[in-house]
Amino acid sequence: MQASDRVLAGRYAAALFQVAADKGEEQKVQADLASAHKLLLDAMATLRHPRVPPANKKNLLHGVLGGKVGATALKFLDLLIDKKRFDLMVMVAAVYAKLAADKRGSAKAHVRAAAPLSAEAQKQLAAKLKAFTGKDIELDVREDRELIGGVAVKIGDWVLDSSLRGQLRRLRESFDHHGN
Fold first, then answer.
1. How many domains does the chain have?
2. Can you give the three-state secondary structure of the chain, one letter per residue?
3. Which of 101, 119, 136 is the last residue of a domain?
4. Fewest CB atoms within 10 Å of the CB: 15, 37, 105, 121?
């Protein structure tokens, strides 16, 4: 994926978000994009293949998604096929989700924890992150035993790494830096 693809995905996502907002469908389109991604996993290779005619791709798309996603999302996916940009679908959906979260005044925090976090620990973490960001926080928690201990949190471009592995890495870097 090139930087130009990220820029283009951002433009597509912003345009789709504007259309959805005008119709009052921001949440529905976000849910439809997520559903479409799951439903189309088996068809992605065909939908991305340059030699498959657009009409065949659209037939496949409508066959899989017909009645399962709204007209706005389906029209958008048709557009990606017409523009030969279906490979951007996943990135567009991610950027769209961020735009929707920003509008709602919320943010998604990707949390990696060395051990499972209890419901209470997740609640406390979300409250602390809300106090820090000023936004409602939706946690996406995953267990990652490689962290050894602690947690690593990513919200947008901001990262907090309080894991033992991160602390050891920073310590090693400070020794390397001072040693030279």
1. 2
2. CCHHHHHHHHHHHHHHHHHHHHHCCHHHHHHHHHHHHHHCHHHHHHHHCCCCCHHHHHHHHHHHHCCCCCHHHHHHHHHHHHCCCHHHHHHHHHHHHHHHHHHHCEEEEEEEECCCCCHHHHHHHHHHHHHHHCCEEEEEEEECHHHCCCEEEEECCEEEECCHHHHHHHHHHHHHHHHC
3. 101
4. 105
Structural domain boundaries, residue 32: 3-101
Per-residue pLDDT tens digits for 92-113: 999 999 898 888 888 889 999 9
Same domain, 97 and 165: no
Do 80 and 167 lie in a common domain?
A: no
* pLDDT tens figures, 3-23: 788 899 999 999 999 999 999
pTM (2 d.p.) = 0.66
